[in-house]
């Protein structure tokens, strides 16, 4: 046993053999892009850190999470899945809402895009002609009724 240990140590320290410095299993990095790698004594000789936000996997292999499945936007067709996150298309004409984009399922579960009706009769002073009745309709131009109404 002592002789085998001596032979093994001699081979490992042999500069001609090139074994004097153990090579890191993390060079080149076997983990997913941007994921940290740590040498390990257990197979396969390295451990990868967690996958980036908005992705899932074991650190070596990560895949994008489709946040659009949780429907964070005003309509399902308005959601654009991106690598690691999502973004919502702008609200349609006649509606107003802040843009929304985010990363990961936790964010998507707690943030939803809101598109509310713009009252053109109130918000647009010239929406209706003078001496007419302005009636706001959802998601469209105001309905203008002719008449002799003065305000």
TrEMBL record:
The keyword Disulfide bond applies. This is Thrombospondin-3a. PANTHER family: THROMBOSPONDIN, THROMBOSPONDIN-3. Keywords: Disulfide bond, EGF-like domain. It comes from Ilyodon furcidens (goldbreast splitfin). Residues 64-102 form the EGF-like domain. The keyword Disulfide bond applies. The gene is THBS3A_3. It comes from the Eukaryota. It holds the Pfam family EGF_CA.
